[in-house]
């Protein structure tokens, strides 16, 4: 009886948070109850660990990483993916603001993933106008779409993202097979924590203070974490600021959405916070519920030094006859339209 009452309490706070659009018109109770049950079964892993020596000190470079599984159902994932494809089509037709959509030419393995940014225009590298890496404050992009705002509300309500760091920007990556993201640390124009949500196919994200670039789309590091479908990876602490991370060439088409909060000092000129994303709070849970939330099975694979890597982890080894490939600006091209026709502004 106590468990039922506890779920009812949570359900009352979830009635407006359905990402799948299934809230009942008569008050939202059935969908909210379903979300309350799902919340009670959410997988959370927060004990990632790999010790590396940094500036003479041995530290856990994965401290601050969290993996939350079961956050978005299969039906919700399909709806989100369809929304992304709809925006991709609009971007190709020039119906989004110029810096919102980018589809570079695929000129080699690992290059050419489609990107869409909402909330702010972020520059990966010095662009043709002389803008350095970081948020370009005098550029406008489209606001965060309604369905993606619902994702933010869900993650705050379910205690995945803290209410003290609610995202006001996001970037969507659409990977074709063999597309990748090279090693990097996210720019400090964005606060910590931030998160990435995975769709369409599972892939690994690789962490380490010294990530090796073996060849186009091939990287090695100390830890490789599988990202299940519909999961949310939180990056904070050493996992965001000491360890670099990268996504090696993906085995199949994949979509990721990375949500981040901008530093107030770097907000675009004229930026107005979305009232829908203000004052979000986590749903109240009884103490017993917090203790009962299970963790998924261990997800991190710690990769041993190259000479000790198992044969099944060939992608993580460093071939002896290849030289490291240096990063250049092409690895993070400035975001711009690839169309010869300049997209119009709305």
From TrEMBL:
Pfam name, any one: 2OG-FeII_Oxy_2
Domain Fe2OG dioxygenase: 166-263
Transmembrane annotation, as ranges: none
Organism superkingdom: Eukaryota
Compositional bias per record (Polar residues), positions renumbered to this chain: 336-346
InterPro entries tied to this protein: AlkB-like (IPR027450), AlkB-like_sf (IPR037151), ALKBH9B/ALKBH10B-like (IPR044842), Oxoglu/Fe-dep_dioxygenase_dom (IPR005123)
Chain residue ranges for the region called Disordered: 293-346
Cited PANTHER family: HYDROXYPROLINE-RICH GLYCOPROTEIN FAMILY PROTEIN-RELATED, OS06G0138200 PROTEIN
Family membership noted in the UniProt record: Belongs to the alkB family.
Annotated protein name in UniProt: Fe2OG dioxygenase domain-containing protein
Organism of derivation: Platanthera guangdongensis
